[in-house]
Design a protein that fits this description.
The complex is a heterodimer of chains A (291) and B (123). Chain A is 37% helix and 29% strand. With 291 residues, chain A is of the alpha/beta class. In chain A, a hairpin with a 2-residue loop joins strand 6 and strand 7 (130-137). Chain B has a single domain, classed as Nucleotidyltransferase, domain 5. Chain B has a six-stranded mixed sheet. Classes of the chains: A alpha/beta (291), B alpha/beta (123). Bound molecules: iron/sulfur cluster (SF4) (2 copies).
Chain lengths: 291, 123
């Protein structure tokens, strides 16, 4: 089963939840953690896996050869303005190029050659039996899509049955990157905080899930015993998968760069939460089959 | 000389817009007789995904502009403007179009040789 962990925006503890859930399953099930937050991946900081493979993600961009007549058709056709034909030259701006190939198609004289630039990389590692993948967008690049797609392909190589678990740690917010990293999941886990800001972001995330037609549930982080999130979930008929208490210890363990699983109390908490999620997914699957 | 200026409004009494790629309009005119030659055109770079400075700069070349007056140019726009051999000058937003043209004629505007911040015009 594929589980997407999401949050309205950064700082809700999304990575804490994703990493610790993955670690809690790893001893019992084949589990893969995938960090899709390619602009700011930080799961590996906590997991510290042994990296065993790194591959570069390339993106094609045009190089103009001598056949060019400076007709300007390529630059007219490029919707990203990555080309400019001026003063008897074609200027190429690789960092704006999306690699769509349109310029090569419209060029009447075959003057567009395709070259490649490195856009980012994909790391694969392992930690205590947990397979770890992350995508990293190169600094200064803004095109996350191709790295996310590459990561998706890599994830699929380790195909999952219902018994195996893939935890996709999705980027914050509600951009296309979020949609691409979450789609195809059996369940989306929305991590939220019991504040008005948290609730506001949760509502946006819920809207996105409904638009995508994705099954989802909520985990409340930093639970302060208040009823804000509970009431909202009850009202909307949303499953509250669990709560993680507000506890200063988390901050302490965190600041030592350790994962919470090394602590007995947290270990138990995430194990229970993990089993609850697995049961939830299986239940929804059978219900779906009956209907 | 054929001048182009980035502007927020249509009229020589309107002000210079210091956003080159993201200004709403450009005025094109002959520096010798702005009043009767002024033409106002929509900035075509506003449509499209990113790279507005590049598209606007390429537009200047297509329009056979000989002098450009604007606020500042980002690194990409400057590369295109340089590639097109169009001298660009910086004017401030509190100048009207006629004032900017006069200031350029009198040699009071400074030529842009260094790029301003990238994406500065996208605010
Ligand atoms: S379309 Fe081809 S020939 Fe025309 S300017 Fe572009 S590269 Fe040159
Ligand atoms: S490949 Fe696409 S985005 Fe890149 S320069 Fe060509 S048309 Fe533009």
């Amino acid at each position: 089963m594929r589980l997407a962990v999401l949050s309205g925006k950064g700082g809700t503890g999304k990575t804490t939840v994703a990493v610790n859930l993955a670690l809690s399953w790893a001893p019992y099930r084949k589990t893969t953690y995938v960090d899709y937050d390619v602009e700011e991946p930080n799961g590996f900081i906590f997991l510290r896996p042994q990296i065993r493979d790194t591959s570069t993600v390339f993106l094609p961009y045009p190089e103009i050869n001598k056949a060019c007549t400076f007709c300007g058709k390529c630059s007219e056709a490029c919707q990203y303005h990555a080309l400019a034909v001026v003063g008897g030259k074609v200027l190429v701006f690789p960092e704006l190029c999306h690699g769509c190939g349109t310029c090569g198609i419209v060029c009447p004289v075959g003057a567009v050659d395709e070259v490649e630039r490195p856009l980012g990389k994909i790391d694969e590692g392992e930690r205590d039996g947990l397979l770890c993948l992350q995508g990293v967008l190169k600094e200064g690049e803004s095109l996350a899509g191709p790295v996310i797609r590459g990561l998706h392909r890599r994830e699929k190589e380790h195909s999952s049955s219902l018994e195996e678990i893939i935890v996709a740690d999705c980027p914050p917010g509600s951009s296309c990157s979020v949609i691409h990293s979450a789609e195809g999941s059996d369940l989306a886990i929305l991590v939220t905080e019991p504040t008005l800001f948290g609730l506001h972001d949760l509502k946006i995330a819920v809207g996105l899930m409904r638009e995508m037609g994705l099954d989802f549930g909520v985990i409340q982080n930093k639970d302060d015993q208040g009823t804000l999130i509970q009431e909202y979930c009850a009202q909307e008929g949303i499953t509250l998968l669990g709560s993680i208490p507000f506890d200063l210890e988390i901050a302490k363990i965190y600041s030592r760069g350790q994962s919470l699983m090394q602590d007995r109390k947290w270990n138990d908490l995430f194990k229970t939460l993990g089993e609850r999620i697995v049961t939830e997914v299986k239940q929804r699957k059978t219900e779906g089959e009956i209907i | 000389m054929r001048i182009a200026i980035s502007t927020g409004g249509c009229g020589l009494d309107k002000f210079v817009d210091d956003r080159f790629g993201r200004c709403p309009y450009f005025v094109f005119c002959d520096s010798e007789d702005p009043q009767s030659t002024a033409e106002y055109k929509d900035n075509p770079a506003l449509s499209g995904t990113g790279g507005a400075g590049i598209a606007a700069a390429e537009y200047m070349a297509k329009e056979k502009v000989e002098v450009l007056i604007t606020g500042s140019l980002g690194p990409n726009a400057l590369r295109v403007i340089n590639g097109a051999n169009i001298p660009a000058y910086t004017a401030s937003e509190d100048m009207t179009l006629s004032e900017a043209i006069l200031a350029w004629k009198e040699g009071r505007l400074i030529q842009i040789t260094e790029a301003g911040a990238a994406h500065a015009g996208e605010r």
